[in-house]
Each structure stands twice: as structure tokens, then as C-alpha cells.
Amino acid sequence: MGCIAQDRCDPRMLKSLCRRCRISTWSRVESGVLGSKEFRVFISQSGTILSPWHDVPLYVDRPDLLLNFVNEIPKGTRPKMEIARDEPSNPIKQDVAKNQELRYLKAGDMPFNYGALPQTWEDPDWVHPDTKLGGDSDPLDAIEISDSPLAIGEITPVRVIGILGLIDEDETDWKVIVKRTTEPNSADNPLAISSADLGKITTWFRTYKLAEGALEENKLIFDGEMRNADYAREIIDEAHARWKSLRCTTKSDDRTL
């Protein structure tokens, strides 16, 4: 049973969601063969399978604003991995296209670690004033910019650097830019991002769908400029509140959306 499987609407519980989850390490449990439709990566803690979306706490250390990052697509790889919202325990699996073939990134290797922030939800009914569109019904996407790749399903503490706003098929799709705390030199300047790295990120999200047959580039709000960490945290806090509301309207034994 996950940390939020019962009494999830008790205000005292919501104030300290998954506090006991903070003190243990997370393990990855692979099932099946990578490159097959059966492949799954589950998250385990103390031998119990948990949801990377619902059971991993968003905040590692609230005073220091450290967040947990769940990696889906390792840097330098192409399989389109994602949290399975509609499966029990929400394992990470390879996405399947409309023709039922496994999806790969046609634009090339992922240039950064790509994943999600747990316990967040981009509510379709949440119309942000800067995008004027609702969310895509997924956890908040996050881009981890450290030099080395993370494994599929690896969970690591990160600091927020900023955020980009993407409009994808008439939905708001925020991209939170983060950097892991264990990266060398991150303590010296934890919120730094080079113009080259930021340019690489914005170029990727503007153009990657062209390789998949799209006729025009994706739209980035603010002309593709990154908003700072304070702006990003406002989005994160709202998405966390929306996730809490989502869980309060979901059956206690339902580990899917």
C-alpha cells in the first residue's frame, strides 16, 4: 500500500504527505526486456512497489527547496519512455504510437535527462493566464541538465533553475529546468545554466516534432525565454495543489489517474 492510499483528504495528512517516504532510498525494479512492449521499470522502497507519480514526495527538503526528480528518458538515448498513468503503480514504460509500434525520438538522442516531478498534475481545467490554455493531464515535465545520464526510473534530488512554457496541441506543457544536487560544482553555483545549454533545450522543444512529421515548429511562450526559479516554483506549487485535489477525488485503492 502506498503512502497516500488512505485518509488522503485529511488536512493533517496532506500537510505531511509521505513523510515516512523521505527517509528511505528508492530502488528500480525492471520487468521484461528493454525495447519490448512488456518492459516496465517499477519503483520500490523497502521491498514494496510504489508509484513514482503518487508515492514519491515532491519535496525532499522544503526549506532548501529541493525536489525529487523521476527520470524517464536518460540523456543520450532515444526510446520514448514515460510514466504509465493508466497502470497500477504507474511504472515507466516505452510509449506506443497510434500504429501500435514502440516510439523512438526521431529527432535524435535526448540531449538531457528528461522526466517528471512527482505529486504534480497539469490539470486540464487549470488555465494559466500566461498560456490561456489548460494543462495536458500529465505530471509536470522536468529537464535535468547535468552532464551524466540517469537511469530509467532513477530518482534524485534537484534544485530548480527555471521553467519554459510550451504549447503542445493546444495544451499547456510546462518544462521545469533542474539540476541534481550531487553534480560536481552544483553547490558553487546551483542555479546556473549556460546560454549554450539553454539554447539546446529551446531548439529541441521547438523543432523535435518536425522530425515526426509536424508541419510547423512547436510554440514556446515568452518567445522561448526561460522564466526564473521563483516563477517556476509558483507553477510547481499550483501543480502540487492540483495533484492533491486529484487524489482526493480518486478512490483510495486506485493507483492510476
Polypeptide structure, described:
- Helix content is 15%, strand content 27%.
- The chain has one domain (50-248): Inorganic Pyrophosphatase, CATH 3.90.80.
- The chain has helices spanning 11-15, 195-207, 229-248; strands at residues 27-31, 40-45, 48-50, 59-61, 66-73, 81-83, 92-94, 113-117, 140-144, 155-168, 171-180, 219-220, 227-228.
- The strands form three sheets. It has a five-stranded mixed beta barrel with strand order 5-8-9-11-10. The chain has a three-stranded antiparallel sheet with strand order 1-2-3, with no helix packed on it.
- The two termini are 16 Å apart.
- The longest helix is centred in the last third of the chain and has 20 residues, at 229-248.
- The model is unreliable at 1-8 and 11-23 (pLDDT under 50).
- With 257 residues, it is an alpha+beta fold.
- Strand 6 and strand 7 form a beta hairpin.
Q: What structural category do the secondary elements indicate?
A: alpha+beta
CATH architecture: Alpha-Beta Complex
The stretches of 5 or more residues where confidence is low (pLDDT under 50) are 1-8, 11-23
Count the domains.
Answer: 1
| SS strand fraction | 25-35%
Level-1 CATH class name: Alpha Beta
User: What is the spatial order of strands in the main beta sheet?
Assistant: 5-8-9-11-10
Instruction: Give the helices and strands as they follow along the chain.
Output: HEEEEEEEEEEEHEEH
CATH homologous superfamily heading = Inorganic pyrophosphatase
Quickly count the helices: 3
Tally of DSSP β-strands: 13
